[in-house]
Amino acid sequence: VFLFPAFIVSDELPCDDGTDNVVRLFNSPGGNNLVVSLNNVAMTTYDANLRTACNTTGGDITFPGSSTLNKGTMTISIAVDARAVRVELSMRKDDNTVGWVCVNGKAQNGIVEDDYCTFDLCNNQVIFAFQICDALTKPGTYKFDDNSMYLFFNPIPYENRNLMTGMWKISVEGLIEDQSIFAWTFLGSDDSGWVHITKTMVQ
């Protein structure tokens, strides 16, 4: 059972909530005019023990863990059948022996299977985005500054845990059949383009 993030700072790493544990989300190139678009969105990251989670590039996305979307806006121009939204990942690791793992939902280099690189937004076992799924059915502009939304992350499947820990460049595209409805890129609080992912243990 997940709880909403508590603002507890880790003793292991100086990590101020809302300053050091930030991951930013942008529309990917071509994403500004899609059904779902973002403006100046940021989320704060927490580990499995509800402590702020940071790395050298900003927020640290941890599995298991959680994130809070608490800055910026999300605009939905028409109602979407959230149950039909499929997410395709593009992910490149800062490791020359790994490189691209997923490109547009297709596995690369034989490291993972295709089903690792694509998933149903509102029906999967790793990332829970219930509030976003609900919002997709109701057109309008959602102001995260006024009403935060939460994401919850289950543990990374065992066989992929060591692979996933590290620095990544991450973008996602949401589709219904072959129609793109959103395209987002994740960035840390710096401008390097890298976001850190960590596996954690619940204490």
What is this entry, summarized?
It comes from Pristionchus fissidentatus. The chain has helices spanning 130-136, 161-164, and strands spanning 22-27, 36-47, 54-55, 58-63, 65-76, 86-93, 100-103, 106-107, 118-120, 127-128, 140-143, 149-153, 166-176, 179-188, 195-199. The chain is mainly β and 203 residues long.
Structure in words:
This protein is mainly beta and 203 residues long. It has a domain at 22-78 and 122-170 and 186-199. The protein has helices at 130-136, 161-164; strands spanning 22-27, 36-47, 54-55, 58-63, 65-76, 86-93, 100-103, 106-107, 118-120, 127-128, 140-143, 149-153, 166-176, 179-188, 195-199. It has a 15-stranded mixed beta sheet that branches. A hairpin with a 2-residue loop joins strand 7 (100-103) and strand 8. The longest helix is centred in the middle third of the chain and has 7 residues, at 130-136. The two termini are 14 Å apart. Mean pLDDT is 89; it is low at 1-11. This is P/Homo B domain-containing protein. It comes from Pristionchus fissidentatus.
Number of helices: 2
The share of residues in extended strands comes to over 45%
> Helical residue percent?
under 10%
Residue windows where pLDDT falls under 50 for at least 5 positions: 1-11
N-to-C SSE string, H for helix and E for strand = EEEEEEEEEEHEEHEEE
Radius of gyration, taken over Cα atoms and rounded to an integer in Å: 16 Å
User: Which class best fits the helix and strand makeup?
Assistant: mainly beta
Mean pLDDT: 89
- The shape, in one word, is globular
Terminal-residue CA separation: 14 Å
- Give a quick account of the main beta sheet: strands, pairing sense, barrel closure: 15 strands, mixed
Protein name: P/Homo B domain-containing protein
